[in-house]
């Protein structure tokens, strides 16, 4: 599907909460600032070619999978946390994270990866590959991939945060969700996707849970 998609949830969870997440740490640590500006954010080192020792975590609109194994849906939060803990080889730092409208979510923080659990659903924000753990979308896009590579893999323009006419976020894996209505394109079926933050034409963050039909 190749229509322009303007971010609403990123929008809603990934940026508003920062996914609270992208910038926040558990509540026993000071809240971070908003997403750093292009000028101050160091670009990630492009993901290395996987070696036999690397764990490959693939994130899609369906869920996550480890090393080509079965997909774990985002509504299976406990199973997803356990799988990520196994991939990283260590337990995450845990703590409450404040969400919109006074809500409080469960936060999990590994090296370069943060997760937010709302009820039984988990959303992920990946800002750095960890030692021995590499993240990819099913299209092969990861941290350090270029804007051109993401577009060639099927990504579409998402949110132009600074209003300069160039999208600062791309949406990949876009698909319609029957029974929903787009808040961006009234009268059309809503869509969901994996969100890619772009800094200086390079992917600097991957976020699950993107859609254009939810405002929280």
Structural overview:
The protein is mainly β and 216 residues long. It is built from three helices and twelve strands, in the order H-E-E-E-H-E-E-E-E-E-H-E-E-E-E. The chain has helices at 10-16, 77-88, 147-152, and strands spanning 55-59, 63-66, 72-73, 93-98, 104-110, 113-118, 121-126, 133-136, 156-157, 169-181, 189-199, 202-211. The protein is globular and about 45 Å long. 42% of the residues are buried.
Count of DSSP strands = 12
Strand portion: 35-45%
Number of helices: 3
User: What is the rounded Rg?
Assistant: 16 Å
Helix percent band: 10-25%
Please give the order of strands in the largest beta sheet: 4-5-6-7-12-11-10-9
The main sheet comes to: 8 strands, antiparallel
Q: What letter string, H or E per element, gives the SSE order?
A: HEEEHEEEEEHEEEE
Regions with pLDDT < 50 over 5+ consecutive residues? Answer: 1-41
Structural class: mainly beta
Overall 3D shape:
globular
Features:
single chain; 216 residues; mainly beta; eight-stranded antiparallel sheet; four-stranded mixed sheet; 3 helices; 12 strands; globular; disordered N terminus
Brief summary of the model shown:
The chain has three helices and twelve strands, in the order αβββαβββββαββββ.
Task: Give the arrangement of secondary structure elements.
Layout: H1 10-16, E1 55-59, E2 63-66, E3 72-73, H2 77-88, E4 93-98, E5 104-110, E6 113-118, E7 121-126, E8 133-136, H3 147-152, E9 156-157, E10 169-181, E11 189-199, E12 202-211
Parallel strand pairs: 1-8
Antiparallel strand pairs: 1-2, 2-3, 4-5, 5-6, 6-7, 7-12, 9-10, 10-11, 11-12
């Amino acid at each position: 599907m190749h229509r322009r998609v303007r971010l609403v949830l990123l929008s809603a969870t990934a940026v508003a909460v920062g996914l609270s997440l992208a910038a926040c740490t558990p509540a026993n640590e000071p809240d971070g600032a908003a997403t750093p500006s292009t000028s101050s954010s160091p670009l990630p080192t492009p993901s290395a070619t996987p070696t036999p020792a690397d764990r490959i975590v693939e994130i899609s609109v369906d869920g996550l999978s480890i090393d080509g194994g079965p997909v774990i849906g985002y509504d299976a939060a406990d199973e997803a946390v356990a799988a990520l803990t196994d991939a990283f080889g260590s337990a995450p730092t845990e703590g409450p994270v404040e969400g919109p409208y006074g809500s409080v979510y469960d936060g999990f923080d590994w090296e370069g990866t943060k997760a937010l659990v709302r009820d039984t659903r988990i959303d992920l924000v990946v800002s750095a590959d960890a030692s021995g753990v590499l993240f990819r979308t099913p299209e092969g896009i990861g941290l350090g991939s270029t804007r051109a590579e993401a577009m060639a893999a099927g990504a579409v323009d998402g949110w132009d945060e600074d209003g300069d006419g160039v999208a600062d976020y791309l949406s990949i894996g876009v698909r319609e969700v029957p029974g929903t209505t787009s808040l961006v394109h009234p009268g059309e079926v809503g869509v969901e996707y994996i969100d890619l933050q772009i800094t200086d034409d390079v992917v600097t963050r991957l976020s699950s849970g993107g859609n254009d039909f939810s405002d929280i």
